[in-house]
Write a structure and sequence with these properties.
Layout (H helix, E strand, L loop, with lengths): L7 H16 L27 E9 L2 E11 L2 E14 L4 H4 L4 E14 L7 E7 L9 E11 L2 E10 L3 E8 L7 E8 L20 E10 L2 E7 L4 E10 L27 H6 L2 H11 L3 E9 L2 E8 L5 H15 L6 E8 L2 E8 L2 H8 L5 H5 L2 E5 L22 E4 L8 E6 L5 E14 L2 E18 L2 E13 L19 H5 L5 E14 L2 E9 L4 E10 L7 E13 L7 E17 L3 E9 L5 E10 L5 E9 L17 E8 L11 E6 L16 H13 L29 H17 L3 H16 L2 H9 L5 H27 L2 H28 L28 H16 L4 H15 L5 H22 L7 E5 L4 E5 L5
Parallel strand pairs: 14-15
Antiparallel strand pairs: 1-2, 1-12, 2-3, 3-4, 4-5, 5-6, 6-7, 7-8, 8-9, 9-10, 10-11, 11-12, 13-14, 15-16, 16-17, 18-19, 19-20, 20-21, 21-22, 22-23, 23-24, 24-25, 25-26, 26-27, 27-28, 28-29, 29-30, 30-31, 31-32, 33-34
Helix pairs in contact: 4-5, 10-17, 11-17, 13-14, 13-15, 13-16, 14-15, 14-17, 15-16, 15-17, 16-17
Length: 950
């Protein structure tokens, strides 16, 4: 397979991709902004779940490069990069003379609030340009309905850029399903667009527009005539929820023993002749298995191995045991496969009945019969002794392979050499692309990169990368960084301008397995182009039925010099980041990182990504630290926060054979210093999350036997993800409503609360006077900080209990979160109604706020106090821990100590929070009522909800 070049991608595109391309259904049509709609106006539709669209439109004076993704069935996220003709990006020729036209980035959101039914229209809520400069900001509400077959109409109202009422219509005749006529009433206020006085936008008015659309497979084109000009919009739609875009027509077949069928030895022959194990290792090595360890332990054949190419763990194990059946001693009664990553055990598969296993692989019995003879345990089974490689560390592949144009890694051309010990040399061209620098909106560099990986011992690897610049335009970047933070990234152009060969990476990585659920890594060397150092990571990844993992990474780093060898700069730092990874429905993973970042700024980073059926992942991150980055567009009052989008594209979905190569792309400012992280030497969660997902999904076997009759099973081809929380939400709402009606003492409780609040109001002035005289007291200041921070900590701990706890703790945490939301809602209503001024502004304790001040920022009641009591009450009730009320009272009183609230505000807020927590706890404490379980069998896939009778 590696001895000659093959046209994997080209062949797949011609024979597999083209029929799929032509057969694909038409998708909803995007507008010039990338959102689903008409010409300039949006509709209520969102694209089909998982649809990614990329397009370019020209609408004088705007050129719009846009991308849009339906990240959830009810949420469409689009981004656009708009250039304005006739407006220079920078007026200073020395600073931005090469930038060209003015360009601006914008992110838009659209939520589907109601799905279309027989009688009701689809309703959507949209928000435009939600971040950054917000030059195109706005919002709208729109309804869409198919009034006749092929005829869709929409009406809506907007504010901001879209001002007032708008509408649209699209007609697609049944005889010409690829063609559509569109018309709209364009309500954009172009005269308020940025720089409109310098462009033709000043002459554009609201009014009608008409257009013609054509769709061919994944390609679409719209030409429209507006009042003063013609616009064009072209696009490519990619359905990310397809399992694969190209069929695996060149996937190597599993082992069949041909051409020379091996003879199985006896156990004594196996033990006396090491060549027997070597023959099995050789057969496995030819199938891309790595770090192969084989031994007989009593009557069990044990294999430890990984695979560098096959993406599904179940399929890896299936090919391993199928091969082993041809070589195992005749007395073998059990086969155990320890699947590994970097020689670290991930799971042990035990097959107790080899006759049943063989019958299943031959298609004689169904999967349910096999599952009775299989056991899967995390990590290495305690009964399995660690294996060594004394007789099996023979290199099975020698020489150098040259692959032109196409190859399993997706390189245009590559030179490779590897062996079964996972030693590998790889040489290929690489390209980097950089946007939006003042010296030019687009820069790139092309280099040749050679990587070399060498196994030095058990879990110990040398990882290196050497690059040589071939051509780049980054040398045009002349502007020095104006960042006030340590230049941990903003000097990247200085590094990229060096054209001599550079050693980008030279690392020693030691991987370790501390327990079946705990992994560790220690690293030393050159981490990346800009930093070197030493550090490590420890990961706790619980067993099946847990959807979370935590890790801690600590690295002592020193900045390298721009020459790219062993020189250094003076900057040194220690980064320490703790991360919580949580898997949500619909293939979504949320990661929260907290700690110290590269520029010695402390804060948190939130990452959310979704994996689609094709394996493609799309996500974003947002970082908030105390770095106080005021470089534009940051300001002293609103410092810049690091953020960006990222994509992970497995080439497995694009090539004609299975492989594990993944391409990673990100869109983010490349010269920012705030919220930055060092490139991980080998992130353990990224290394283990995919195998763990395979093992924990359904029965853990995946496409184990590669049988044609099983390809439609959910275990083999998982269905498109869906999530329907409404049944459980409805149950909780019903229980809460019923419990509210059953409460007989509501009037007495309200009266008691009013008495307590009025009593506290009588102390408002003396308590505030007491604290006002002691604001310089350190104890009082810290008490105020406690009152501000403790509610946030309480909500965070409630969320952790919900996400990580057992059924009882998780249900209590959810009730606490619900109570906090209800308390905030109740407190906000009281704020709007009372509009009380905060302490420190006058003689009266019950004066109203000055005109123009937000009522939601008024004093009565205290949100912090309400949230704090709402959070602790369910836990105090469920676990009989009344001391928690004392903690809540201490924290709530801190709001009076800091003079952010009157004592009566705090009292009323605490009583409101307690009432909400107590009510919802009584209503929802029976967690068994809301439990649900997934049913996955060869014949059905669904959700079971347990509803005990009461």
């Amino acid at each position: 397979m590696h001895n000659k070049s093959r046209s994997y991608l080209v062949t797949g595109a011609l024979w597999g991709g083209l029929p799929l391309f032509l057969a694909c259904n038409a998708f909803a049509q995007p507008s010039l902004t990338g959102q689903i709609g008409y010409i300039n106006m949006p509709s209520a539709r969102v694209g089909e779940d998982g649809t990614f669209s990329l397009g370019y439109g020209y609408d004088k004076p705007y050129g719009i490069l846009w991308a849009s993704t339906t990240v959830l069935p009810w949420l469409e996220v689009s981004g656009r990069y708009t250039s304005i003709s006739g407006v220079p990006g920078f007026t200073d020729a020395q600073y931005g003379g090469g930038y060209g036209r003015f360009k601006d980035k914008a992110i838009d959101l659209k939520f589907r609030l109601l799905e279309e039914s027989s009688f009701l229209p689809e309703i959507g809520l949209g928000m435009t340009d939600i971040q950054g400069t917000r030059l195109w900001k706005g919002s709208y509400l729109v309804a869409s309905k198919n009034v006749l077959p092929g005829l869709e109409t929409s009406v809506g109202v907007g504010s901001g850029r879209i001002q007032g009422a708008f509408g649209g219509i699209r007609y697609t005749p049944a005889v010409l399903p690829n063609w559509s006529l569109v018309a709209e009433y364009d309500a954009n206020n172009y005269r308020q667009d940025p720089f409109s006085s310098q462009t033709s936008a000043a002459q554009r008015n609201k009014g009608p527009a008409i257009g013609l659309e054509y769709q061919w497979g994944w390609l679409g084109l719209q030409v429209a005539r507006q009042k003063t000009h013609t616009s064009v919009n072209a696009r490519l739609d990619i359905p990310l929820n397809l399992k694969e875009f190209v069929p695996k027509i060149q996937e190597p077949a599993y082992f069949t023993g041909a051409p020379d069928l091996p003879s199985r030895p006896t156990l004594s022959q196996w033990q006396s002749d090491s060549d027997r194990a070597q023959q099995l290792a050789t057969a496995l090595g030819k199938q891309d298995f790595k770090n192969i360890r084989i031994a007989m332990q009593r009557d069990s054949l044990v294999m430890e191995l990984g695979n560098s190419r096959i993406s599904n763990v179940g399929r890896v194990v299936g090919r391993a045991v199928r091969t082993a059946l041809y070589f195992a001693p005749l007395e073998t009664r059990e086969i155990k496969v320890v699947y590994t990553e970097q020689e670290q055990p991930v799971a042990t598969y035990s097959f107790y009945d080899l006759a049943t296993l063989n019958d299943y692989l031959l298609g004689k019995i169904d999967r349910s019969r096999l599952l009775q003879t299989v056991n899967i345990k995390p990590g290495r089974d305690d009964e399995v002794q660690p294996l060594d490689s004394r007789t099996l560390a023979q290199t099975l592949r020698e020489g150098i392979d040259v692959n032109l144009l196409t190859n399993p890694e997706g390189d245009l051309v590559q030179v490779t050499s590897d062996d079964t010990e996972d030693n590998r040399f790889h040489l290929a061209p690489k390209m980097g692309v950089y946007f939006n620098d003042p010296s030019g909106a687009f820069h790139y560099d092309i280099m040749a990169e050679a990587t070399y990986k060498r196994r030095l011992g058990k879990g110990l690897y040398l990882d290196s990368a050497l690059s040589a610049d071939l051509y780049n335009t980054i040398t045009e970047v002349k502007q020095p960084s104006n960042s006030l933070l340590p230049h941990v990234r903003s000097d990247i152009a200085d590094y990229k301008r060096v054209k001599t060969p550079k050693l980008n990476r030279l690392l020693l990585n030691q991987y370790m397995n501390m327990s079946p659920s705990t992994y560790a890594r220690v690293s030393l060397g050159l981490y990346e182009e800009m930093f070197r150092g030493a550090g490590g990571q420890i990961l706790y990844y619980p067993n099946a039925n847990k959807n979370w993992a935590v890790d801690l990474a600590v690295d002592a780093l020193q900045q390298r010099d721009v020459q790219g060898w062993f020189g250094k700069r003076d900057y040194q730092t220690v980064t320490a980041l703790a991360s919580l990874h949580y898997q949500l429905p619909m293939g979504i993973t949320a990661t929260m990182r907290g700690g110290r970042f590269l520029a010695k700024d402390d804060g948190v980073r939130m990452e959310i990504k979704r994996r689609f059926r094709s394996g493609i992942e799309a996500g974003f991150w947002y970082t908030k630290t105390n770095g106080n980055d005021i470089t534009s567009p940051g300001t002293p009052t609103k410092p810049y926060s690091d953020k960006g989008l990222f994509f992970s594209i497995p080439l497995n979905s694009l090539l004609t054979l299975d492989n594990r190569t993944v391409g990673n792309f990100s869109l983010a400012p490349w010269t920012r210093d705030v919220g930055q992280m060092v490139m991980s030497p080998g992130d353990l969660y990224e290394m283990l999350s995919d195998p763990k997902h395979d093992i924990d999904s359904y029965d853990g076997l995946g496409n184990f036997a590669e049988r044609p009759d099983e390809q439609n099973l959910p275990q083999v081809t998982p269905p498109q993800p869906s999530y329907h929380p409404w049944p459980v939400i409805r149950l909780r709402l019903e229980d809460s409503g019923n419990r509210w009606l059953e409460l007989d003492d509501k009037g007495a409780a309200l009266a008691a609360s009013a008495v307590a609040t009025f009593a506290a109001a009588g102390l408002d002035r003396p308590v505030d006077r007491f604290f006002s005289k002691r604001q310089d007291n350190r104890l009082i200041r810290n008490w105020g900080k406690l009152g501000k921070d403790l509610p946030i900590a309480a909500v965070a701990l409630s969320g952790a209990a919900f996400a990580l706890g057992d059924d009882r703790l998780s249900n209590t945490g959810l009730i606490a979160l619900e109570s906090s939301i209800a308390a905030i809602a109740g407190s906000s209503v009281l704020k709007l109604a009372v509009n009380r001024a905060r302490p420190g502004g006058g003689d009266s304790t019950w004066r109203t706020q000055e005109p123009g001040e937000s009522r939601l920022q008024s004093s009565f009641t205290s949100n912090h106090s309400a949230v704090l009591f709402a959070s602790v009450t369910p836990f105090a009730k469920e676990y009989d821990q009344p001391w928690l009320y004392g903690v809540a009272a201490l924290g709530a009183a801190g709001r009076a100590a800091s003079r952010d609230h009157w004592l009566s505000d705090v009292t009323a807020g605490g009583l409101l929070g307690y009432a909400m927590g107590n009510w919802l706890w009584q209503a929802q404490r029976n967690d068994s009522r809301y439990r649900s379980s997934l049913i996955a069998t060869p014949k059905q896939l669904g959700m079971q909800i347990e509803v005990p009778l009461r």
